[in-house]
Specification:
heterodimer, A: about 350 residues, alpha/beta, Rossmann fold, 6-stranded mixed sheet, two-stranded antiparallel ribbon, disordered N terminus, B: about 325 residues, 7-stranded mixed sheet, 5-stranded mixed sheet, 13 helices, 14 strands, about 40% helix, about 20% strand
């Protein structure tokens, strides 16, 4: 990966945690830097556009009801992880990881319909916003209780190991989730079982309105990894190359039977907790500082500097994404609401 | 047919399903080398290996969570709560994750959570509870509690083969106290179907688990007084076999709902309400509930005895009903 042009700090290894060796770092295989940049840029920009439409247009127009949680500013984490995952791997995203769905092939049509409660959404109107999954695509839906997915992800990984599968599990959660008991129980069980799972923390520094210093007394989430006997690594979560590389290394360890890893991606939530929250509790300077680190602008600079894309090509990509969003919203608005007569269906197998 | 204990019947049920289907595996605390706190999984580690008999840390939430995750990947987990009292630690995974996953996003979670429950073993407040009502009010779950060895094995097989999450309560007092004939051949007992334990004429006793045997004891005494009890063993608490309940009530015109769980919010309230709504015209007396009083389960033997419904308490309620 030496060919990757550094855009800001590429990889901050954590002194306290056991870490990937240089040999492992060099051994990372997968997409070329150019592919990471081009594909990463497209999916991050698509996530940004879809979420902007959801949060800043459709929600305000009253076309989307209920909660809206977006991943603005932290797209590089779910997109970087998504690019590192193989098609048959299992994904356990959290509620700010829309890019993970997009990389796996979930369409903007399905996403807008999901948010609008229409039958064309992944949950046919049974669920809203990012509470969506699809077993056929091996994406498991979150529940609202943070970290509940962690032991579930561990169980899927244990099953894959038992079945002798090459596939592994990617589980993303926020810093807030790491305070829950389920996080400890799931991480510990996965480590004891050497389950093939990559745990990825998007440390966006706020759990709703609660800053890190009121969530945990250690400096880094990754500080906890050695206590579970697993490698912990800290990366710049606004750098899609850094995320991709770290996740690839951890995926390699998981596929090789070496068990789980914990990757902490430092980032910032460039929005309130949800659409109704303006984030007034965030000091003004943090918005400014982190706006400078926008992961999409950073990868665009790399694309231009390396000659992998021209300004015109980038503009064309954005135009294409806007058209995709327009078309998908129109499609979703034409998708019907679920029929109330189906209210009691599928509580159990075959129930009507 | 061989006569085996309730405990052995459960063990056979799991064992045979593991032989039949390689996707069935057990996960829980101390179930491997130790064979489980009650020896339900004794010998299974040697037969099936540590990947199918998974000893875990003390992590009830992770046990159920991992079972859910494994079920998504095509497995059929049998998760053990060492005592049903500890199922509280896994509450979120059961009621928020497992129960709702099919409805929410069409992802079935076929798993069994085994939960040894019930008092009368001097276990005190945390080794004696009957927490079934917490789960009975959760759509998406099935809740089972057998009273006999035959049903214990047959219901276990059905629970493992079912495509929805099943909470399987096993009454600890019955583990070695109840024996029964169990066929060597493969058989199942359907979920959602009650069983007429004893035919009678005067009072329909609607009950399940250990209380089936308490009601039987009372019935023998009352028979000498000319009071005939019909005993309906529910076997499955969710979904309730409403048809069987109403049939017994309409036949006897008097109903006693009996459970070892505490009174308020117990399943007896739900059953009484359904009888009132759907069999009111057939009733000759108010529906009576007999349950443990609304206290934690006490330890000292005289206190625990006072707490648990027993044959004498059933006889007292039945006499009152018969005379009404």
């Amino acid at each position: 990966m030496a060919a990757v042009k550094p855009v800001g700090p590429l990889l901050v290894e954590h002194a306290g945690a056991s870490r990937a060796t240089a040999a492992e770092t060099d051994a990372v295989e997968g997409l070329s830097p150019e592919e990471i940049a081009l594909r990463g840029h497209y999916y991050m920009a698509l996530q940004r556009e879809v979420e902007d439409r959801i949060e800043r247009k459709l929600y305000r127009q009253g076309k989307i009801l209920g909660g809206v949680y977006v991943g603005r500013g932290q797209e590089a984490i779910c997109v970087g992880a998504g690019l590192a995952a193989e098609e048959e791997d299992w994904l356990y995203p959290c509620h700010r990881d829309l890019g993970l769905y997009l990389v796996r092939g979930v369409t903007p049509r399905e996403i807008f319909a999901q948010y609008m409660g229409r039958v064309g959404g992944l949950t046919r109107g049974r669920e809203g916003n990012m509470h969506m999954g699809d077993l056929k695509r091996r994406i498991v839906a979150i529940i609202s209780a943070m970290a509940a997915s962690v032991p579930v992800a561990a169980g899927t990984a244990m099953a894959l190991k038992f079945q002798g599968s090459r596939q592994i599990v990617f589980n993303i959660f926020g810093d807030g989730a790491t305070s829950r008991g389920d996080w400890h129980e799931g991480i510990n069980l996965a480590s004891v079982q050497k389950a093939p799972v990559v745990f990825i923390c998007n440390n966006n520094q706020y759990a709703y309105s609660t800053p890190l210093e009121k969530q945990m007394a250690c400096e880094h989430v990754a500080d906890r990894a050695p206590g579970y006997g697993m490698p912990g690594e800290i990366v710049d979560g606004n750098d899609v190359f850094a995320v991709y590389n770290a996740v690839q290394r951890a995926a390699g360890r998981a596929r090789a039977g070496q068990g789980p890893s914990l990757i902490e991606c430092k980032t910032f939530r460039m929005t309130g907790h949800s659409a109704h929250d303006g984030g007034d509790y965030v000091p003004e300077h943090l918005w400014r500082e982190w706006a400078e680190k926008c992961p999409i602008q950073r990868v665009e600079r790399t694309l231009l500097e390396c000659g992998w894309a021209s300004r015109e090509e980038l503009d064309a990509t954005h135009a294409r994404i806007r058209r995709e969003a327009d078309e998908a919203i129109a499609w979703a608005e034409n998708s019907p609401y679920p029929d109330p007569s189906t209210l009691t269906h599928d509580v159990y197998e075959g129930s009507r | 047919m061989a006569e085996v204990t309730y405990l052995e019947a459960i063990r056979q049920g799991i064992w045979e399903e593991m032989e039949r289907d390689a996707s069935v595996f057990c996960i829980g605390e101390d179930i491997g080398v130790y064979g489980g706190a009650f020896k339900i999984t004794k010998g299974m580690l040697q037969r099936f290996g540590e990947q199918r008999i998974v000893d875990t840390p003390i992590s009830e939430s992770a046990i159920v969570g991992a079972a859910i995750g494994a079920s998504f990947a095509g497995m059929r987990p049998v998760a053990e709560m060492q005592f049903s009292d500890f199922i509280t630690c896994a509450f979120d995974q059961i009621v928020n994750f497992a129960a709702k996953t099919r409805y929410r996003w069409n992802a079935p979670a076929p798993l069994v959570v085994r939960a040894p429950s019930g008092g009368g073993i001097h276990g005190g407040p945390y080794h004696s509870q009957n927490p079934e009502a917490w789960f009975v009010k959760t759509p998406g779950l099935k809740v089972v509690e057998p009273a006999t060895a035959y049903d214990a094995k047959g219901l276990m097989k059905s629970a493992i083969r079912d495509n929805d999450p099943v909470i399987f309560f096993e009454h600890k007092k019955l583990y070695r106290a109840v024996k029964g004939e169990v066929p060597a051949s493969d058989y199942t007992v359907p979920l959602g179907k009650a069983r007429l334990h004893r035919e009678g004429k005067h009072i329909a006793v609607i009950t399940y688990g250990a209380m089936v045997h308490v009601a039987s004891e009372a019935a023998t005494v009352l028979e000498r007084e000319g009071v005939s009890l019909e005993i309906l063993d529910l076997r499955t608490l969710l979904p309730l076999d409403e048809e069987a309940i109403l049939a017994s009530v309409k036949k006897c015109s008097r109903a006693l709902v009996l459970h070892e769980d505490t009174l308020t919010g117990g399943i007896g309230g739900e059953i009484s309400a359904r009888i009132s709504e759907k069999a009111f015209e057939w009733l000759d007396a108010p529906v009576v509930r007999l349950a443990a009083p609304d206290t934690p389960v006490p330890f000292a033997p005289p206190l625990e005895q006072a707490f648990l419904p027993d044959a004498n308490k059933v006889i007292e309620k039945a006499r009152w009903l018969a005379a009404y």
